[in-house]
Amino acid sequence: MAQLPTGNAGPHEGTPATSPSPDAPRGPRLVVSRESDEASLRAARREVQRRIESQGVLSREVREMLEDCWTQALARARQREGPGGSSWFMLLRVMDDLLWSVQVKLSTDDRKRLMGILPSLIADVHEGMVQGQWSSDRRDGFLATLVDCHASAVKAGFKKRLTPL
């Protein structure tokens, strides 16, 4: 990325510029930062929307958490580490696992996989919500709802398997 000029030229042409004083205007840097923040938020929203749209049925609570909190967490990760950062990809993986986890589980293998990933998934979702700066009460409320979503996904799978065609 090109460096922005500091606006502090040396006293003579050819003299290197000095570093900006703490009192120097920060306008250009703030504009670049704001544009970067907006680009990060747009990229995060695109990823969340793309994944939500690929789902069949999704609870309102999961959708809202992803559109609000998870989008913020992704944007912050991208701002911190850039578009190829490890936090960005970890949050995308957790979102994919979360979306899979709340879909109906028809097979025994899917139910076993869900039970196997739940402890780490819950911990990762919690960490993502911390990064998205949700309050403790909101995180706890969402995780309680998530338990219900997982129970429904497993129960619905049993019902579909038992329903004759």
Description:
This protein has five helices and no strands. It has 165 residues and is mainly alpha-helical. It has one domain. Helix 3 crosses helix 4 (108-131). The N and C termini lie far apart (60 Å). Residues 1-22 and 28-32 have low confidence and may be disordered.
Could you give a short description of this structure?
The protein is mainly α. It contains five helices and no strands.
Q: Descriptors for this entry?
A:
5 helices, 165 residues, mainly alpha, 70% helix, 0% strand, single chain
Give the mean pLDDT: 82
Structural class: mainly alpha
What global shape is seen? Answer: elongated
**The number of domains:** 1
- What is the number of strand segments? 0
Q: Helical element count? A: 5
What is the percentage of strand-forming residues? under 5%
Radius of gyration, in Å, reads: 23 Å
| Helical residue percent band | over 70%
- Which segments are poorly predicted (pLDDT under 50) over 5 or more consecutive residues? 1-22, 28-32
Spatial gap, N to C terminus: 60 Å
- Compressed to H and E, one letter per element, the order equals HHHHH
- Sheet having the most strands: none
Lay out the secondary structure.
Layout: H1 27-53, H2 60-81, H3 86-101, H4 108-131, H5 136-162
Helix pairs in contact: 1-2, 1-3, 2-3, 2-4, 3-4, 4-5
